[in-house]
């Protein structure tokens, strides 16, 4: 007589996660893969909190300006376009800091397609123009990020290195993938600081066994010191390392970041631009820049009032024309702004009809958006003033240190394995 199989035979076995050894190898190879990216990003990132001051120091003739009166960016833009037919200026700052110039970024359009041309006949070797914001007098030109033009492009070049190794779109994508690996590796590295499971008979309290991971043995051998700096440094800085890793994904790899954040309720402001993409760019909308600013101010007042907020005079404001989407975006400052610069509250509206398309509040309306915007502000050091800027500079150097110490650990262990292989007798 046949007997039935035990019930447990038909139950699926629980999924077994890889052991600690697997994660050690994964962390090792992730670190080696990321070493160059994080080393460069850390070094350049230590300078970027001071980019405005360093720009003024390395190219004072461009960024500093002596003027009295009221800046009129709209008039200055119109004069520039009159002097440079065929050019377009789609982004316009509406506020100018005292003692600073007005920077306009120009691009040249293909008369047949209406799309931007980067090279070719009629395209000059510059795209940044610096002007007195009151008189409109030209102070200088540069091609943004082209270090071949000298010191005036030092900080833009370092900025390009920071997010793309100065390799353009391919570098941005590769850096985005690196940031995604970094994000995952943050959790792997944290797990590896936890103490291995000990026999129950000899098991000390968890915190007591974990405590060595937080310490640095300063008076020890060079290898132990290097190891402690890597492990304890990563552990003490872990929350901010994760902040910088995931925010880097949002900058460089939105195709991954957007759907993940949407799953938790975020509404990415960039989607309205993609959803409104036109068959051909609308380079000559019915609303000119002056009318667009007026419409933006009107919508800003209306939407701020609905939220019980006021449009603040202090803080930045700007207007951005997006020809490929047929939209204007108007940035203004409210109490919802996180960045100390302001200008993070935005309305987007049709460039022909002025119909409102979207409103983006930096904080207080959508929790997931507030979270993302805080990560961005922390990454760019636009919060908490001077002390946090100093901390971000130090953090950049620490990220570089973690990359170097990780490579040193790998080299030491690789050397040890090679030594053991040589000492083993051959059969």
From TrEMBL:
TM stretches of this protein: 29-51, 161-194, 390-411
Xref: InterPro entries: PepSY-ass_TM
Keywords of the record: Membrane, Transmembrane, Transmembrane helix
Protein name according to UniProt: Conserved hypothetical membrane protein
Source species: Novosphingobium aromaticivorans (strain ATCC 700278 / DSM 12444 / CCUG 56034 / CIP 105152 / NBRC 16084 / F199)
């Amino acid at each position: 007589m046949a007997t039935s199989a035990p019930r447990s035979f038909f139950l699926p076995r629980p999924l077994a996660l890889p052991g600690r050894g697997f994660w050690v190898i994964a962390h090792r190879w992730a670190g080696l893969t990321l070493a160059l990216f994080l080393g460069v990003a850390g070094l350049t990132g230590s300078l970027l909190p001071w980019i405005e001051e360093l720009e003024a120091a390395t190219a004072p003739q461009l960024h500093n300006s002596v003027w009295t009166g009221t800046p009129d960016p709209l008039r200055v833009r119109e004069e520039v376009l009159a002097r440079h037919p065929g050019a377009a200026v789609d982004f316009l700052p509406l506020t100018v800091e005292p003692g600073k110039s007005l920077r306009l970024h120009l691009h040249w359009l293909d008369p047949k397609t209406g799309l931007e041309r980067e090279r070719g006949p009629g395209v000059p070797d510059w795209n940044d123009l610096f002007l007195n914001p009151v008189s409109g007098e030209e102070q200088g030109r540069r091609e943004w990020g082209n270090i071949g033009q000298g010191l005036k492009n030092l900080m833009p070049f370092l900025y390009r290195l920071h997010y793309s190794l100065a390799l353009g779109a391919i570098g941005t994508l590769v850096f985005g993938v690196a940031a995604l690996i970094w994000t995952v590796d943050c959790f792997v590295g944290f797990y590896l600081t936890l103490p291995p499971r000990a026999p129950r008979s000899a098991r000390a309290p968890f915190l007591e066994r974990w405590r060595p991971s937080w310490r640095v043995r300063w008076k020890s051998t060079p290898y132990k010191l290097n190891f402690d700096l890597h492990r304890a440094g990563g552990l003490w800085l872990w929350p901010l390392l994760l902040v910088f890793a995931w925010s880097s994904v949002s900058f460089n790899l939105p195709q991954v970041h957007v759907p993940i954040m949407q799953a938790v309720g975020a509404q990415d402001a960039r989607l309205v631009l993609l959803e409104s993409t036109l068959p051909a760019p609308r380079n000559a909308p019915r609303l000119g820049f002056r009318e667009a600013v007026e419409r933006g101010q009107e919508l800003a007042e209306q939407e701020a009032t609905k939220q019980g907020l006021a449009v603040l005079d202090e803080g930045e404001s700007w207007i951005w024309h997006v020809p490929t989407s047929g939209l204007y975006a108007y940035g203004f400052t409210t109490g919802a702004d996180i960045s100390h610069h302001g200008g993070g509250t935005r309305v987007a509206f049709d460039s022909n009809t002025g119909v409102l398309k979207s409103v983006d509040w930096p904080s207080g309306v959508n929790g997931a958006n507030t979270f993302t915007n805080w990560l961005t502000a922390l990454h760019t050091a636009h919060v908490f003033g001077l002390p946090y800027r100093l901390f971000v500079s130090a953090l950049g150097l620490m990220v570089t240190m973690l990359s170097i110490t990780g490579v040193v650990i790998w080299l030491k262990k690789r050397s040890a394995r090679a030594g053991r292989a040589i000492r083993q007798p051959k059969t």
